[in-house]
């Protein structure tokens, strides 16, 4: 169950998070097991308090929801932005590719005939506008590497060490960026030894494990959402976040 409140959101899980998330949308008739009974025997209670500050949008967010992202960066408390868009380098790289337009030579042979020149042109224009926005001197926008290093310039979009981390898929790099931000948040809260999570209370036997998150992934990609939830990274679609934040 996920409940979002004004500036604070709490996610509660009273069963095995990995199994629930992976099989949430699979009808019981197709699974063939009594998952409720299995999960009850190995229940893990986790509560996640979400106080969004850093938002990580994927590439499609910039193409489909650029006006909404611009509205998010304009939300302020006094003179300070309420939210900061943390733009992964891989997203900038993808936007650059889209801005150049699709090249039929880069597509599988079966897909070349389906390329719509008008659609490609529209996406290219959207990508150009998104790049201009992402690279603007906006205090509510930061560009960063997969390892969470914030860049002083957004003109460089190539990471030389991502292959060492065996991150071959761009979605995995976006998720890795989110997890790096979570680790940075741990250090900011004087908990350098904790990996990926901020503990609000120790998890004693029979007691829920309480976590805090300030990082939210913005995406509509189903596979990326499943991966993020499996790593306890809060996920929202842009329209849903806009409605929750009162910006829509």
UniProtKB/TrEMBL annotation:
GO CC terms, sorted: nucleus
Entries under Pfam families matching the protein: PIN_4
Q: Which residues form a coiled coil?
A: none
- Residue limits of the PIN domain? 53-226
Domain of life the protein comes from: Eukaryota
- PANTHER family given for it? TRANSCRIPTIONAL PROTEIN SWT1
What's this protein's name? PIN domain-containing protein
- Origin organism of this chain? Vespula germanica (German yellow jacket)
């Amino acid at each position: 169950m996920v409940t979002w409140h004004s500036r604070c959101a709490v996610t509660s899980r009273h069963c095995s998070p990995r199994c629930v998330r992976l099989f949430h949308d699979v009808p019981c008739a197709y699974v063939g097991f009594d998952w409720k009974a299995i999960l009850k025997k190995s229940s893990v209670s986790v509560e996640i308090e979400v106080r969004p500050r850093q938002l990580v949008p994927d590439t499609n967010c910039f193409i489909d929801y650029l006006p909404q992202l611009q509205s998010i960066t304009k939300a302020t408390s006094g003179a300070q932005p309420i939210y900061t868009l943390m733009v992964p380098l891989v997203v900038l790289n993808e936007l650059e590719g889209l801005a150049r337009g699709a090249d039929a030579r880069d597509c599988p042979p079966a897909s070349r005939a389906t390329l719509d020149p008008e659609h490609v042109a529209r996406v290219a224009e959207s990508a150009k506008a998104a790049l201009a926005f992402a690279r603007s001197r906006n205090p509510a926008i930061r560009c960063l590497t997969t390892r969470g290093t914030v860049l002083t310039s957004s003109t460089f979009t190539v990471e030389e060490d991502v292959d060492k981390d065996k991150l071959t898929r761009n979605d995995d790099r976006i998720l890795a960026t989110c997890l790096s931000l979570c680790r940075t948040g741990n250090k900011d809260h004087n908990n350098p030894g904790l990996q990926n999570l901020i503990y609000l209370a120790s998890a004693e036997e029979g007691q829920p494990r309480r976590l805090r998150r300030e990082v939210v992934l913005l995406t509509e990609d189903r596979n990326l959402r499943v991966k993020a939830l499996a790593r306890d990274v809060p996920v929202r679609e842009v329209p849903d976040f806009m409605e929750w934040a009162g910006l829509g």
